[in-house]
Specification:
- The chain has 4 helices and 2 strands.
- By secondary structure, the protein is mainly alpha-helical.
- Strands 1-2 form a two-stranded antiparallel sheet.
- Helix 3 packs antiparallel against helix 4.
Length: 180
């Protein structure tokens, strides 16, 4: 009976130690959750195969302007205690510190894009191809049995085009009623 009591006591001690380990791990990770969310978003939720060409065509200037606005607003709204930020033993002013933070976050986002394009995230960052849409906004709904090129309807016997519409009704939102 004493062996059973020792086994139960040991099991309680193991569970208590596991609970303490989990609580310690949570206390260590909680301050890093925003950064982990930042990395998760830019690494897994953004389709960088579409984003990088936009950045190359001039979108990078928009990113730089957003960075500048972020620094100005964040520096004005939330100055640090004591008026200085401390990086690696250096004391920098409010706006310089905010510029460093925003630049680091932007570099992390771009590094996540590079990692995604290299295939480092594997199947976690695969995006399905979107279906191509035609000029009239029909998408991939098939052909309605009429010619889009001839809107004059030279054939006056077009009461039935294979889709059962009245010849004087509005068809699909892009034809108007025809007077014969």
């Amino acid at each position: 009976m004493e062996a059973l009591f020792d086994l139960f006591s040991s099991l309680v001690n193991v569970l208590s130690a596991l609970l303490n380990l989990v609580l310690s791990l949570v206390r260590v990770l909680i301050p890093w959750i925003p950064l982990l969310g930042w990395v998760g978003f830019w690494g897994l939720a953004v389709n960088w195969t579409k984003a990088f060409p936009v950045l190359r065509r001039g979108g990078l200037f928009g990113v730089l302007l957003l960075m500048l606005v972020s620094v100005l607003v964040w520096g004005s709204v939330a100055p640090p205690e004591g008026g200085k930020h401390y990086f690696l033993g250096l004391a920098v002013s409010n706006f310089t510190g905010k510029f460093i933070y925003v630049t680091m976050l932007t570099c992390i986002a771009l590094l996540c894009g590079s990692a995604q394009l290299s295939g480092a995230f594997g199947r976690l960052a695969e995006f399905p191809e979107e279906p191509a849409e035609d000029d009239h906004g029909h998408g991939d709904h098939g052909h309605h049995g009429h010619d889009h090129g001839d809107h004059g309807h030279a054939d006056h016997g077009h009461g039935d085009h294979g889709h059962g519409h009245d010849s004087h009704a509005v068809h699909g939102g892009h034809h108007t009623a025809h007077a014969h």
